[in-house]
Amino acid sequence: MKIIVRLLGAFCVILCMGLFSSCEKSNPPGPVNPFSNGGSERNMIVVMSDIHLGADTSYTECKKNLAPLVKLLKQIQASTNVKELVIGGDLVDEWFVPAPIDTYGGKDQADFVQRLATSNKVVIDAFNSIIQEGKILVTYVPGNHDMAITAASIESILPGISQARDNVPGLGTYSPAGCPVVAIEHGHRYDFFCAPDPFSNQDIAPGTILPPGYFYARIGSLFAIQKNPKAADTLPVVTPNPSWNESQNLLYKYWTTWKGSVDMFPIPYRFDDKFIVTNINGFTGNYSVDDVVPFQLSPGGFIDVALYHGILEKWDARQTHNNVPVHIKTGLAIDSVVSATFAYHQASVQYFMNTASDKRIVIFGHTHQPRMVAGTGSKGEKCIYANSGTWIDYNPDQTTMNFVVITPQNTVASSQTFVKLYNFENEVVTEMDENSIRY
């Protein structure tokens, strides 16, 4: 549910507790060339994510940063040392669309991605130039905001791009050739609100995988373009009952999270108004806040929900379907929405401390929080987590225009594999953090 992180950055820092290494902007002496390894070998891997290109630039999140992105892509293309460019999810955005707007404009996804390519032509052209030149492999990994975008749709605007997709829709994990200890994924498969949900709402939206975070994003983007609207309604109170079972306790926790979001995103609609227009990924109807927020007919009584009925009971099955190696308890998954440390924690649990995993460098996006953390794996070996941040114009309390560069070890130039985190704000490359391992 990164819409909360995106619009109200305070949520992202209250739980940091000093875990992350510092990512404050530094002022290194002289210019920084992040795409040079000091030699002639083409072995560097660049990772960027969360660009959030949209079809309608009147409300999309990445507009001012498009031109700097093109400049950086040209620097990448000109490098004789870059081997791969990995797009770690949320390249395109079907979610950040104000709720009353039909995302497809009455048409379909194929038309949407073509309009998006036209609206962001300079960026799409820059990616295609790299792809067509053939010197740098460009790989796309799905994120949550583009989880329903098909491989054919991506191929239609970026012909020849490599796509790293799981055997289930909306997910992918990528390990570059020659770097078996590296795992790059968006990170949303561990997020209760943003992981693909192929179980809920199948009676009304057959085949959908859209999780509840989709509706958060539609409401949050409406709030963002309204510029501090007055709330037209108040959410009915739900109260706990000491005699409830675990399922009802979890529904109350789920309601509490929804209440926090509704309170933060006042909108000029009553909560029973059907103002959320879908027509996407199996959904065809219009929906209200009351449809997605749990409700209670009497104080202390039974809690129910219209959309996503039974979602809490199906969380384990959803994790199995989404290839989550180490399952996350439902209550923890719901609470994690406001945790700034959850992404690193999952990198550690799912990869570093998982004895079935051989990964020692994990790169996520999703949170829009550029970070790097060194930890220890199950065998006592050093491991590195990095988050590739975002390219949206406004990223509260964080930098933007971020990217990660991995320089693999070799026997000639370096005995270490380096991971470096940068930003490109004001079109100046600034190194934010770095670390290294030997494997």
Q: Specify the oligomeric state.
A: single chain
Percentage beta strand: 15-25%
What CATH calls the topology of the domain at 2-193 and 340-437 is: Purple Acid Phosphatase, chain A, domain 2
State the fourth-level CATH superfamily of the domain at 2-193 and 340-437. Metallo-dependent phosphatases
Distinct helical segment count: 11
* Biggest sheet: strand arrangement: 4-3-2-1-14-15-16
Total DSSP E strands: 16
What number is the mean pLDDT?
92
Order of helices and strands: HEHEHHEHEEEHHEEHEEHHHEEEEEE
Query: Which CATH first-tier class of the domain at 2-193 and 340-437 would you pick?
Result: Alpha Beta
Q: Tell me the structural class.
A: alpha/beta
What can you tell me about this protein's structure?
The protein is an alpha/beta fold. The chain has a domain at 2-193 and 340-437: 4-Layer Sandwich (Purple Acid Phosphatase, chain A, domain 2). It has helices at residues 2-7, 66-78, 109-119, 121-133, 151-157, 213-226, 246-264, 289-292, 315-321, 330-335, 342-352; strands spanning 44-48, 82-87, 137-140, 162-163, 173-174, 182-185, 276-277, 286-287, 295-296, 303-304, 361-364, 371-376, 382-387, 402-407, 417-423, 430-437. The strands form four sheets. It has a seven-stranded mixed sheet, covered by helices on one side. Strands 5-6-11-13-12 form a five-stranded mixed sheet, covered by helices on one side. A two-stranded antiparallel sheet has the order 7-8. A hairpin with a 7-residue loop joins β5 and β6 (182-185). α2 runs parallel beside α4 and α3 packs parallel to α5 (151-157). The longest helix has 19 residues, at 246-264. Residues 4-29 have low confidence and may be disordered.
